[in-house]
Amino acid sequence: MKITVVGVGLLGGSLALQAREKGVAKRIIGVDANPENADKALELGIVDEMASLEDAIPLTDLVVLATPVNVISGLLPRVLDALPDGKVVMDLGSTKEIICRSVENHPRRRQYVAAHPIAGTENSGPAAAFSGLFKRKTMILCDQEKSSNAALNLVVSLAQTLEMRLSFMNSVEHDRHLAYVSHLSHISSFALGVTVLEKEKDESTIFDMAGSGFSSTVRLAKSSPDMWAPIFTQNTENISRALDAYIKRLQRFKEVIDGQDEARAREIMHQANEIRRVLQGIDVKMGGL
User: Fold this and answer.
1) How many other C-beta atoms are found inside a 10 Å radius of the C-beta of residue 116?
2) Are residues 166 and 195 in the same domain?
3) Do 85 and 157 lie in a common domain?
4) How far apart are CA 175 and CA 225, in angstroms?
5) DSSP letter for each residue of 189-204
6) Quick one: which of 49, 50, 224 has its CA closest to 125?
7) Do 88 and 6 fall into the same domain?
8) 198 and 191 in contact (C-beta within 8 Å)?
9) DSSP 179
10) pLDDT in tens, 29-76
11) Is residue 211 predicted with pLDDT exceeding 60?
């Protein structure tokens, strides 16, 4: 199979590397608007060649859109316009409703599969890509009934070859859930990072006092603003509701601390400890692959 990867950064580059390692792709064509990314992807052997989108589409069996979500929603109709019969396009965006809506009435809609791999790191660019990123992670496929059986089967087969778990849901449900379990955590990390930087002007003090707890909590604040700002824009309504709930919870916690109500603080933390059960369940599922 020949694959074109549009956006040869962390996600697109990692998919290309793992697809090559697994023998799925005979040839991988890269497309990237950033010349430095293009050169780096070639240097690292992520792709066999770089090309324009227009030149790459007729040569490929599968087009993978791995750009920021605002770029995906603009590119997807163009790709479907040029996509030959029997060929497939998928995206790896962290939002789904607006992207799916952009091609809702497109005559080639059934050649598109809406996908979101729950995988990533705080790093970005081709140098951050590695072949094991998707192993034992979940690939969410959305609105699968709107894709042809052939297109869906191709993407399912690819995900299984990459050793991923599969989950199916509609695009609206996807964005609602991701607002809580992904988008909110990134906002919290960004906010914590800015708060500490504003209050602790002496960076050496941050370095001296910061422990593993701070590092793990603020790790996501290193994520790409170019990737995440459009996600917040495309999922504004769901994220706003999640933030309302989170802010109210923080305010209640603040009131407990202000009142030195240690018993209530312990109760809240014991409730929060229940997340261990959820995380252990996730670990069990991941280990079952």
Assistant:
1) 27
2) no
3) yes
4) 19
5) HHHHHHHHHHH---HH
6) 224
7) yes
8) no
9) I
10) 999 999 999 999 999 999 999 999 999 999 999 999 999 999 999 999
11) yes
Q: Name the β-bridge partners of 65.
A: 6, 91
Q: Is 136 left (phi over 0), alpha (psi -120 to 50) or beta?
A: left
- At which of 117, 152, 170 does a domain end? 170
Q: Which of 154, 170, 186 is a domain's end point?
A: 170
Same domain, 70 and 204: no
Would you say 103 and 77 are in contact if contact means Cβ atoms under 8 Å apart? yes
Q: Is the pLDDT of residue 140 over 60?
A: yes
Residue where the block lists tokens 């750009």: 67
**What DSSP character marks residue 83?**
P
What mean pLDDT do residues 210-224 have?
A: 81
For the purposes of burial, counting CB atoms within 10 Å of the CB of 106, is it exposed (0-12), middle (13-18) or buried (19 or more)? middle
* Axis-axis angle for helices 69-82, 225-234 (nearest 10): 80
User: For the stretch 176-196, what's the b/e string if a residue is b when 16 or more beta carbons lie within 10 angstroms of its beta carbon?
Assistant: bebbeebbbebbbbbeebeee
Strand spans (E) along 147-286: 165-169
> What pLDDT does residue 219 have?
87
Residue 201 has pLDDT above 90, yes or no: no
Question: Which domain range does residue 106 map to?
Answer: 2-170
Q: pLDDT digit string (tens) for 89-115?
A: 999 999 999 999 999 999 999 999 999
pTM, to two decimals? 0.88
Amino acid at 275: I
The span from the CA of 28 to the CA of 282, in Å, is 32
Residue 11 scores a pLDDT above 70 = yes
Contact status, residue 90 vs residue 113, Cβ threshold 8 Å: yes
Per residue in 261-288, pLDDT tens? 999 999 999 998 888 876 665 554 544 4
